[in-house]
Amino acid sequence: MAACSVEELLAKAEQDEAEKLKSITVKKELDLEFDIGNLLASDKNRLESRDFREQKKEDFLRSLARDNTQLLINEIWKQPTERVDEAIVTKLPDTVTPLPREKPPPKPRPPTKWEEFARLKGIQNKKNTNLVWDENAKDWRRRWGYKRAKDDTKEWLIEVPVTADPNEDQFAKRATAKKERVAKNEFNRLKNIARAQKVKLPGVGLTPVAQQCKEDLVRAVSVARTSTASVGRFQDRLPKEKPPKNTGKKRKFEPLIGNFSTEKQKQLDLLNLMNGKKPKLDINKAVDNQIREEKREEAAARYKKGAGKKGRRGNMPGKGGKGKGGQTGKSGGGKGSKFGGQGGKSGGQGGKRRGKLGKH
């Protein structure tokens, strides 16, 4: 019994070893259809139902998946290869099988300003080594970063240039220049991200460009005016300067501690309005709107008929001028007429009687 068990164990061990060391050559009645771009292999061979029933389902499916995967890997290694960072990679061809997607494929990243400039000037990226020789330290050091070569930030002595101010702190000047470089790089990085995502950047005042337009100058003046402590309230204006546009309105809030009865009444009114079956109608506001609309229609009709053109020739001889009543008369000259007379009472109110004539 023990010998039988030992033989079974040895046979199982040999079978496991053979499973691990299977040949890379797999024979199929029909060749598989490959789509290397999608890493896809389609097996159209007929499955034997007898083998499927006799063997365990998991073992049968595992063996079938192993053979098809081996054929797919064999097909991948037939593609051209190259070495990248001590690793062999294969360049996959274009895809053949269209796969359904919920969303469209992502668009390629737009080039940055430096990439566009390099493309126009024909500048090509050259891969440099990470280590360079440092003459001061007599050692190979990193090109960038911590403990880099030619690191001038660790110098304890700085030579003052001839054209510089002898009382200027060169260490502070170097630190300020570094902060400006870091801020500029970060600003450019954020601008590239915003441009790629098509996000409109907020205004930054008057930016340095070749030629300033009128809108830029007006915006810069407005920003400078509202940059004071009083937000431009007490700022002096130029003689012919126009008031700024789109200045906005200052919001007003109710006091946090105040009359609680007013707040209670507001809440009750709001609840009554929400619980009411019919919408609340402001009678006075509706009537005012109707009157205003009727007046607007009458004025438009009067303008079409040309009624607004009458009585505008008050200084012409023989025509009625404006009297003291503010209405146009059909006869009688008003003040400042050609005859020097004054318009009569009937002439000022549009009567038919003539006004008194002055002396010639």
UniProtKB/TrEMBL annotation:
Keywords: Nucleus, Ribosome biogenesis. GO terms for biological process: endonucleolytic cleavage in ITS1 to separate SSU-rRNA from 5.8S rRNA and LSU-rRNA from tricistronic rRNA transcript (SSU-rRNA, 5.8S rRNA, LSU-rRNA); ribosomal large subunit biogenesis. GO terms for cellular component: nucleolus; preribosome, large subunit precursor. It holds the Pfam family RRS1. Residues 234-244, 284-301 have a biased composition (Basic and acidic residues). Residues 317-350 have a biased composition (Gly residues). It is found in: Nucleus. Residues 232-260, 284-360 are annotated as: Disordered. Residues 302-313, 351-360 have a biased composition (Basic residues). Belongs to the RRS1 family. Involved in ribosomal large subunit assembly. This is Ribosome biogenesis regulatory protein.
